[in-house]
Amino acid sequence: MNKDLILLGHGSGGKLSHQLLDDLIIPTLSGISRAGQNDAAVVEHGGQRLAFTTDSYVVDPIFFPGGNIGGLAVNGTVNDLAMMGARPLFISVGLIIEEGFSRTELAEVLSSMRGAADAAGVRIVTGDTKVVPRGKADRIFINTSGVGAIEHSFAISGAGARTGDKVIVNGTIGDHGIAVMARREGLELETDILSDCAPLNGLVAEILAEAGEAVHVLRDPTRGGVATTLKEIALQSDKIITLHERALPLNGAVKGVCSILGLDPLYVANEGKLLAVVAPEAAERLLARMKRHPLGHGAAIIGEVGDGGGKVQMETAVGGVRAVEMLAGEQLPRIC
C-alpha cells in the first residue's frame, strides 16, 4: 500500500483518522496536545469563554430516513458546541454545490437547516456558496462553523474522566449509521429505522443544571461510534473505561441489521446521542432527570472509569472481558 495516499479510512474517525491528525495535520497547523483535542475549541475574549467549532458534511445519500444533510449539518455543529457545555449562538454555512443539482432539493435542504437552527435557538449569520462543474463533487457538500458562550465555570473535557466516574448514554446507539446505510444500499426492512439526528443543547442544559461540576466529560459519538469516542476519552484521561454489554441500549431493528451484516453497533455513527462521564454520586439522579427529557428516554449507565492507561474493555453478556479499540479502517463511509 502506498503510504503517501489518502484513503477513505482516513475520514472514518477511527485509527487512520487519528494517525493522519497526529502525524501531519495537527503538528503542522497548531500543535494542540491530545488533552486539548475536543469537539470544540475553548477560547477567551474580553473575559468571556467561548466555544468554537467547524465541521464538513458529505453524507450519502443526502436524504435519509429521519433527516437530510441540511439538518444534520446544523445539529452536528450545535452538538459539538454543547459538548463543551456551551450555549450555541451563531453558525456559518458554506455550500459546495455540483452543477446540475436540483433547486427543489436545495430548497428542501436549506429549509431543514433553518428549521434545525430555529429549534436549537441559534442564528445562521454568514456563509458562502460555490458551484463546481458536474462530476467534480457529489451533489452537495456543506461546511458549518459555530460559536457558543460558556456561561459557567465547569471544566468539561475529554481529559476530565476520573476514577470511579460513571458513563451514561442518552439512548439507543447506532440508529443514524444504520438508517443511512439502509437507504444507501436499498435494504428492505420490516421496520423503519430512523436517524437520531437532533440538537442536544437542550438536554445538555438539563444535565448541567442537575449535576454541574460533577459532569467531567461530554462527547457525541458520531464517526467511529461509541467505541471510538470512549477510546479517545480513555487516552486523553489516561484511564480505563469498562463497558457492560448487557447495559447497552439498542434498537432491536438496528441490532438485527448489525447482526446480519456483521457490524458492531459500538462502531456505528450516531447524530443525536451523547456520552456523559460523571461523578458516581451524581449518576443516578442525573439519569433520572435525563429520562424525563424527550431526547433522554432511553438513557442508561453503561460503564465506569477506573485506573489504567488509555484502555477500553467490555464485560460481555456471557461473562468474559474483551478489549475495545478504535474503529479500524472505514466501516460505513460518508455517514455524516
TrEMBL record:
One Pfam family in the UniProt entry: AIRS_C
Q: In what residue span(s) does the PurM-like N-terminal domain sit?
A: 38-149
Q: Where is the PurM-like C-terminal domain?
A: 163-311
| The protein, known as | Hydrogenase
Q: Which InterPro entries match?
A: HypE, PurM-like_C_dom, PurM-like_C_sf, PurM-like_N, PurM-like_N_sf
The record's similarity note reads:
Belongs to the HypE family.
Coiled-coil stretches: none
GO biological process terms held by the UniProt record: protein maturation
User: Which Gene3D superfamilies is this protein grouped with?
Assistant: PurM-like C-terminal domain (3.90.650.10), PurM-like, N-terminal domain (3.30.1330.10)
Q: Where are the membrane-spanning stretches?
A: none
